[in-house]
Specification:
By secondary structure, this protein is an alpha/beta fold. It folds into two domains: about 10-135 and about 140-210, Spore Coat Polysaccharide Biosynthesis Protein SpsA, Chain A, CATH 3.90.550.10; about 215-320, no CATH class. The chain contains 13 helices and eight strands. It has helices spanning about 20-30, 45, 70-80, 100-110, 135-145, 165-175, 175-180, 190-195, 215-235, 240-245, 250-270, 275-295, 305-315, and strands spanning about 10-15, 35-40, 60-65, 85-90, 95, 120-125, 165, 200-210. It has an eight-stranded mixed beta sheet. The longest helix has 22 residues, at about 250-270. It is globular, with a radius of gyration of 19 Å.
């Protein structure tokens, strides 16, 4: 008799298995671990170290050989396409699920409040290393909109990572799925609201996110992310529109900063934020807007995606003393 199909698939893509060990361990420690499969998407040389039978607490541990050259967005898309469950969670090597994350998500799926229109579930994402102003600024700009204190909201747009998606929604992307798995693309949010579909916030499901702590790393990540966003949009925009958005960079910075203010105020209610977070949010908005302008004007260096993937996969290396 074949084992029962998993109820939830977790996609964990990495070019280095060691970098994913802690995140994988968090999924193995789930109270509902027996109801999920974890798909490790990595280069062949890394997968040779994986024993599919070495995680008996999971419904399955499935190694998936990543395409070469390795690209994080493409590897995540590979995992999503290979998943067997009707719901797919896109994980990160630097995000660590609380033990009840999966159980809370599965409970939300079963609840009457999650109907056929719900195509994505977003857990509460919290700052797992809240020691300084830089990592708070990094967290709030990346995940503040889905942080502690937010009420359940069926209209919220899901982030690309640390979210649970209905397989049917991802399948509708077709050949665009690898691009949609890129942090530069904005295909996921519009798709989740098309045809009356929606995303639901599940505060009871919690996952911690690791954030950079050095100012230089924060500035570099915002600049590179902005360049990626601008270059991605430039591929489908006309030159007049690209020039207009590049010229409007100061206004874009103001809009980006304004978007972080509600999350900053909400975070202050639950945590004693270090001094200097607000100026860093403004700096991050300025740097990202400058990066977008560079991308709109056509400069997208070949190394950009590789450097962003490096930061994503090995973020713990940018947080001194984290493992201790």
């Amino acid at each position: 008799m074949s084992p029962p199909a998993p109820e939830l698939s977790v996609v964990l893509a990495t070019s280095a298995l060691d970098a994913a060990a802690r995140s994988l361990g968090a999924f193995r420690a789930q109270t509902a671990a027996g109801r999920i499969e974890v798909l490790l998407v990595a280069p062949r040389a890394e997968l040779e170290r994986v024993d599919p039978a070495g995680a008996p607490e999971l419904a399955a541990l499935r190694p998936i050989e990543a395409a070469i050259p390795f690209a994080l967005a493409g590897a995540r898309a590979q995992g999503a396409l290979a998943a067997r469950a009707p719901w797919i969670f896109v994980g990160e090597t630097h995000s660590f699920a609380d033990p009840t994350l999966v159980a809370a998500l599965l409970d939300a799926i079963a609840a009457s409040s999650v109907d056929s229109r719900t195509q994505a579930l977003v857990p509460c994402i919290y700052n797992v290393n809240p020691g300084g102003a830089v990592n708070w600024a990094a967290f709030l700009t990346d995940y503040g909109a889905w942080g502690p204190g937010h009420a359940a909201d069926a209209a919220m747009a899901p982030p690309i990572y640390n979210s649970l998606f209905a397989r049917a929604m991802l399948e509708r992307l077709g050949d665009l799925l690898p691009k949609a798995m890129s942090p530069h693309d904005d295909a996921i949010a519009p798709l989740s609201s098309q045809g009356g579909y929606r995303a639901a916030f599940v505060p009871a499901a919690r996952i911690g996110h690791l954030n950079v702590v050095r100012l230089a790393d924060f500035v570099r990540s915002k600049l590179h992310h902005g360049m990626g966003v601008g270059a991605t949009r430039a591929q489908r925009w006309s030159w007049p529109r690209r020039f207009a958005y590049a010229a409007a960079a100061p206004l874009i910075a103001g809009v980006l900063f304004a978007r972080t203010l509600p999350d900053y105020r909400l975070a202050r209610q639950g945590d004693r934020l270090p001094f200097g977070v607000l100026p860093l949010l403004a700096l991050g908005a300025l740097v990202r807007a400058a990066g977008e302008a560079i991308g709109y004007l056509g400069w997208s260096p070949a190394w950009l995606d590789e450097r962003l993937d490096q930061l994503e996969i090995h973020k713990a290396d940018y947080v001194p003393g984290w493992e201790r």
